[in-house]
Design brief:
mainly alpha, 192 residues, flat, 80% helix
Length: 192
């Protein structure tokens, strides 16, 4: 666990590696959406209420939180470390059992909030200014993640809006590919 925590938060993943990963992820996911719009639309329509995927994402989110809590410097709170670990495990089980409504959306939002940390650590006080492409993405993801956790029906409504007109799906896919290409280009050329 410590090695995972250290690679994500102390000193974090190198900016170039983070940029390459984010760029490839954006290009890959949005490229698939552009090439296979029917499969993407079908998946997106079913995603908000998909309990299987939601449960998997929920477990990943709680494991990530458990690792962070277990490895970070707790200072004065070290006395409650075990208690909070037990609460996290019970919370994970409780969410899976009792919060089945939109669990995939809530878990995705939770993961977006968690993933912002390593992204921001990798870009902290680094040059050049183009690093702000991934910083902005991290903050946008964390912000929308908070809304999806608290008001998960928003994702369903956003998906419905995008899928009402295939041009919106195509434009979103092209925008994601373009942003991913920009991040990847910056990572390969500027972020050494």
């Amino acid at each position: 666990m410590q090695a995972i925590y250290e690679s994500l938060y102390r000193p974090g993943m190198p900016l170039q590696v983070m940029g390459i990963l984010i760029g490839l992820w954006l290009i890959g996911t949005h490229g698939f959406a552009l090439l296979k719009p029917d499969i993407t639309a079908d998946f997106l329509k079913k995603f908000p209420r998909n309990e299987k995927i939601g449960t998997i994402l929920c477990v990943i989110g709680f494991i990530w939180t458990f690792v962070v809590w277990s490895e970070m410097d707790l200072g004065e709170f070290y006395k409650v470390e075990r208690l909070v670990q037990i609460v996290l495990i019970a919370g994970c089980v409780g969410v899976i059992i009792h919060v089945k409504e939109f669990i995939a959306v809530r878990s995705t939002g939770f993961l977006l909030i968690l993933v912002a940390g390593p992204i921001l650590v990798s870009a902290f006080l680094k040059e050049p200014v183009s690093r702000l492409f991934i910083v902005a993405l991290a903050y946008a993801g964390a912000l929308i993640g908070m809304f999806w956790v608290g008001m998960p029906y928003l994702m369903r409504d956003q998906i419905d809006w995008v899928l009402k007109d295939r041009k919106r799906l195509k434009m979103g896919a092209l925008g994601g590919i373009g942003y991913g290409a920009l991040v990847l280009l910056c990572a390969l050329i500027f972020w050494k």
